[in-house]
Amino acid sequence: MSHGTADPREPDVLVHTEGRAGFLTLNRPRAINALTHAMVRTVDEALTAWEHDPAVETVVIRGAGERGLCAGGDIRAIHEDARAGGTATPAFWRDEYRLNARIARYPKPYVAFMDGIVMGGGVGVSAHGSLRVVTERSRIAMPETGIGFVPDVGGTHLLGRAPGELGTHLALTGAQAGAADAILAGLADRYVPSADLPALADALTGLPAAEAVARHARPAPAGELAARRSWIDACYAADTVEGIVERLSDSGVPEAKEAAGVLLGRSPTALKATLAALRRARRLDSLEAALNMEFRLSCAALGSPDLVEGIRAQVVDKDRDPHWIPATLAEVTEADTERWFAPHAAGELGLTAH
């Protein structure tokens, strides 16, 4: 679904109201609308203005261009900052995670069009909303372990609460979920064909949000995860990443063996930190508590060799051949993992549930 090509003179977030709805259109289509710090601030300012504006009853977030809502944070900027040992990235995360918490608590309906690619930070600005719409084009993922990072933007909270071990599978492998799978995992609510999104946007200007979405919603085409639940739940319930890989390898299920192979290509340190974070997030009582934990993890990742190397291999040089340090799961000790959860020099996020 296109809102035209971005004019270089246009802002990176288009903010406008129509009827009873306020529209936020992420507008960096060439970068699949990757989030910058300025974009996070713009969205936050619009939410402040609309929260107290009785004329705005519903907020809608969507992406410009054909490729997706948002591919995540601006990875290249993070890579440059990490290499320079900079402080810009923790400042970005601080505002981004506060925005994620705000979206979850927003007092008006917040409708997210999760069309096309929705990854990392894109999940953060959509999956905490009150009405999350997916299409046949939706590809939703938290692919952080592939770049030596951990699911953030409240990802541990969302995936920790997915049925069974579906969230563990999605978090560790970074697998993409289509519409039905995203709904099953609790990352989305309703399915609307992408061709109907313009009509839905129009309906939201005049109708209450839930009514407008219900009118356009259809049953989602079948996904893959429901049929895989039995081996996913059995294999990912293991206590350690090594145990998970072993169960997947020994399961006799081709897709499970494939998942084991995927895990063995991911950052061993990031895998262990992610599993520990998911298990902890299940015991935390709020999204805010999970975001506070994730802020520590993200800052730890920023200072680790794997994040710089992972982004180099996947995004900068695109050789898809990262050299992780340590290189194997066996070399990552419990103490190594525990250090990721310690307070960081960047300080605490300090969000409280309300």
TrEMBL record:
Protein name from the UniProt record: 3-hydroxyisobutyryl-CoA hydrolase
Enoyl-CoA hydratase/isomerase domain: which residues? 22-341
GO MF terms listed in the record are:
3-hydroxyisobutyryl-CoA hydrolase activity
GO biological process terms on file: L-valine catabolic process
Catalysis: reaction(s): 3-hydroxy-2-methylpropanoyl-CoA + H2O = 3-hydroxy-2-methylpropanoate + CoA + H(+)
Query: Keyword Kinase on this protein?
Result: no
Enzyme Commission identifier(s): 3.1.2.4
Q: Which key words are in the record?
A: Hydrolase
Q: Keyword Hydrolase, does the record have it?
A: yes
Which Pfam families does this one have?
A: ECH_2
Q: Which InterPro entries match?
A: ClpP/crotonase-like_dom_sf, ECH_dom, HIBYL-CoA-H
**One of the record's GO cellular component terms:** cytosol
Matches recorded under NCBIfam families: PRK05617.1
